[in-house]
Every structure is written in structure tokens, then in C-alpha cells.
Fold:
Amino acid sequence: MITGYFGQATAAAVRTFQATHGLPQTGFVDAATAAAINNASCGGVSYPTYPTYPSNPTYPAYPTYPAYPTTPSYCLLSGQGGAYPYNYGYGTNCHVSIRSISPSSADVGDRITMYGSGFSSSGNTARFGIGIAATNVSSYDNGTRLTFTVPSRLSVYGYSSERVYETTYPVSIVNSAGYTSNAVSLRITDADDNDNDGDLDISSVSGPSSLDVGERGTWTVNVRGGRTDYLTFSVDWDDDDYNPYYPYAQTDTFFQTNRVSHTYYDEGAYRIRFTVSDGGGDSDTATKTVRVEDDNDDDNDEEHISIDDMDFHPDVLRVDRGTRVAWENDDNIDHTVRSLGFEYFNSGILDPGEDYSHTFNTRGTFAYYCSLHPEMRGTIIVE
Structure:
């Protein structure tokens, strides 16, 4: 049929001709096919006409045509020579392939470049195995180069995520038409630049490095990462005798900010330990040292309480803030001096003749007792 239109029948006839002349059956009149047609026409070689085509079931109909192109140039000419009716941008309808990856080993946060063909101008997806590492990635140089950043986490099946581990991943690209490339290997050498023991980490701790006795300090702890949405955050203040801080739960996963406060009642250097854990088994620890000094040491008044005859004398004592109170065991048996409630002070066992002192830098009423003889009670009122 003479239609003047290069349609299905014409493409099928070209493939028939190419098959009989040992040429790739593309259905497209390239230079080699044109030369063969010219030689056949000049030599008087007969060529099967289109009407014979329907009787030959071995030739696929046009809808299966996208399986034929194997050369990237046909994709680059999409919509411009009859290969495809529309042109949505270079590589849109191409089969995609990766030739190389650079670098072949990287850390989380590094930039990776893929070299190959068939990448879409936009809308490419980078995969690490079954996990999605990057979406809507653009390509350059006519769909032959694509760059993305190694993430710290992968999206899996669209509804969950997992951290990137220090291992080798098969990396592939899916272009915007849904074609998936071959896979190349990428070795992850450092899964977390800030903390090699897991994706969950304490990114920073800020707070005072020195305090006065009785002064309240506040520390800010920033936490990020985690495999689950349920994190446990705890603090060891390094002064077990005073106001222990118990763990509590956090529910936000990323970039948490925790503010915690504490008061020290004795001089010394304390090493505070902050710990965060998640439900997946990851944890991280950070420490901060604070030095506690008594700025009233030179001016302290001192008051005395006698422990005698199973009693404190006096059992109620009023003092000014900064006063040092000394208990002397004048009895003939052992006693202790221990605060009620929070352990602001605890003498331990005092043998007969021993003494214990504590400086009161915080205003308030402090009840205490003898832990060996609980009926022995006393009170210090700090004004």
C-alpha cells in the first residue's frame, strides 16, 4: 500500500527485509538497511510485499515494539524519527544501564556519581538492594551521568525504614519510565560520620562546667537517629547519695533536645554520664565533667550537735545559709546522721568519738534521723 506514512505495516516490512538480509530487526531504516535496500533494488532482488505479512505469525505486532531497541541512540531520538510517537525528554523510554560508579566505596553523606545510559532527565530513583536511597534524581550529559548523596537511612517498601550499614550494597537505578538498570557494587565504609557504634547518637551536650555547692545546674542534650520511635534517655549524676535521676522515655525520633537539671551538695569533680537507647538495640553515651566548689568555705559559721543518750542535742537547730553543722557522737554506741527523703547528707556509721559535718547552702527545712535507731530524729532549719 502506498500511503506516504511510516506506520505499523511499513515497520513490519522493514523488519522482514532486515531478517532476510542478516541485519538487526529494528524496523527502522538505518544506514545499513538503506544500503541493503539500494543493492537489492538495483540487482533485481524481489522483496516480499506487505500483504504477505499477516500470514506469518512469527512477526510481533507493534505493541511489543518497545522490547526491540537496544541502542541508546534510538531513545535519544524518541519522537524525532518515528521510533516513538512522543518525546518526553531524553532517556524517558530507554532501557537504562550502569557502566560504572565513582567512588566505589563511600561514607554516609558522600556524593556518588553513576555513569551509563538511559537515565531520565528527572524522576530517577536510586536503590540500595530493596531499599530506596534517593528519589526524583536528575541526570546530566544526555542521560549518561547521575549523582546522589549516600543517605543514613533507606526507605523500604514505602512504609518502613532501616539504617545504612557498613557493608556492600547492590546499587541500581530506576528511570522515570520504570526501567531498572543492572546493579553495581558500592561499599559503605562508615555508616555514621559522628558515631561508629550506631545510627543513634548524642550529637552534643552543653551546660556548666563549674557550680557552687547548692547551685542548680541545667544541661542541654541533643539526640538524633534511632531505629524506633521510642527512645529511653537516662542520666547518671555521679553522686549516688543525692537525688538520683531515674530514666524516662522520649517519643520523638530525630533531633531531640533534652534539658535536665541537678543540684550538687558536696564539693568535688563529678563526671555526668548521659545515655540514650532505642528499641532496636542501638545506644550512645556522652559524658560531661562539672566541678563543684563551696564559695562559703572561708566565711562558714559552724554549729555543733551532740549525739548522746540516744538523742540529738539540740534536736531542732536554726542556722543561716552557708553554715556548717557538725554532729559529734558522744554516746557509747554507734549512730548515723542521714537526711529524710532525698539523701542530701549521710554520715555513714559513726563510732563513739567520731564526728560528721555538712554545709547547708540551700534554704529550707531538712529533717534527719539515725538509720540504726530510727526513733532518733532531728531538724535543721536553714534561713
Q: What stands out?
A: Residues 97-190 form a domain with the Immunoglobulin-like fold (CATH 2.60.40.10).
